Structures are given as C-alpha cells and as structure tokens.
Input
Amino acid sequence: MKTLNFLKSSVFVVCFFMLQTVYAQFGKANKVKLPESYNFEYIYKLKLTHKKGDVNLDYYLKEDANYFGFDTTEMTKGSADTNIFMVMDAELEITAMFMEMMGKKVVQKTKLKTSDFTSKQEDMSDYDFKQIDSKTINGYDCEGYLSENDKVKIIYYITDDVPVSFNQMFGDNVKNLPKGFNAEIMKKYAEKGLMMEMIYEDKKKSKNNITMECTSLEKTDFSIDTTKYGSMMGAFGG
Output
C-alpha cells in the first residue's frame, strides 16, 4: 500500500517496517551495547480490521523516548514455548528482539536506519488534502483529515492531546515527505501527535480496504531488564 507512505509517523508504517526488518543483517548490530533497561509508561492498543479478519497490536511508549516496544503475542500464536518482545531504538539504530525460548532468555539485535522509513517517496501531487470535522475517540479530541484521488480515499484522525507519540523515532523532517503532501500537517504534530483512527479505502479493489483504530491508551510500568538476556549463540552453545 504505497499510498500510505506519507503517514510516516503513523503506526501503520511502523508495523510493516518492523516485519520487514526482523530478518535483516545481524553482524554489526550484535556488537551494540544496550542500555540496562527499557522502560515504558503507556500501552497503545491498535486494532486492524480487514476483510480477512482482525488483528490486535500492542505498542509500548514512553514520553520523550527515542524508542518504543512492540508485543508480538498476536504474531506468535501457536508457539507456546516462544515469547518475543521487540524494541526499536532510534538512537542506537537497532531493533532488539527479546526472546524467551526453551527456558532461555536471549536477545537478537538487527541494524535499523530510521531514514529508511522515508527513502522511497511517492508522488502524491494528484491527491486532494483537506481537513474534515473533528471527533472524540477514546476521550481524546481528534482532528480529521482526508486525502483522496481517483484510486484511493484515506480518512485519518490525529490527536495532540496525549503525552506520547512515535515522533521521537521518526522526527518531523518535511524534506522526506512525498511530493505534493501538505507539510503543514506534519509540522503541526511535530512534537506530539498520535493517530487514533484511519480508514483506508481502495476505490477499485475493496479487498484492500483496512481500518485501524486505537482501542485504548493505558498507563503501564512495564520494563525490559536487558541484563537478563544473553546472545543467541551463547545461550545455545554457539
């Protein structure tokens, strides 16, 4: 869905990029020293509704942090002996997978460059961008936006009435926005901004339609003690 590239600070881009980086090169990343712990203050619960079924995703955020966590429970269903929690760290430029496998705790680090999120620009000069009526979602005041051309219609609602966002990961570099995109929207939410709902409609292929909605933003005191996780090779005798 290339038409979603402009939502560079939205969770949709985050989700798919993480799936693509899980199996990337490991070499240099495994030499990176992690902080002793990753601490989180909020759980951002996201529901994706598609023709083929619903998917629930949990993201872990911390105010002003340049990292976030992702619970892969939904993706590892059926693997009772495996528990994986991912952390994307923009400062260290890595994705760390904290795994519990066969009674052992291991971490696998993968090289990550946040610039890759905006490396492929799409010409969106044929899109019509406009602000639409606002609405309240989960108690948060959200402003609505519509982007549309003859093929795609996207409605999304963003709030800045929250203490956390993904912006510390991706920033607000308007130079990397797709051609024709209204940069003022990104500037407005440069410091604080969280997508609470998005409706993607493919006008020619309804099977591609997808709705994403934040079902809740809950406080948490969850943390990962990285000192308890060894390397993959070391844990299994490599």
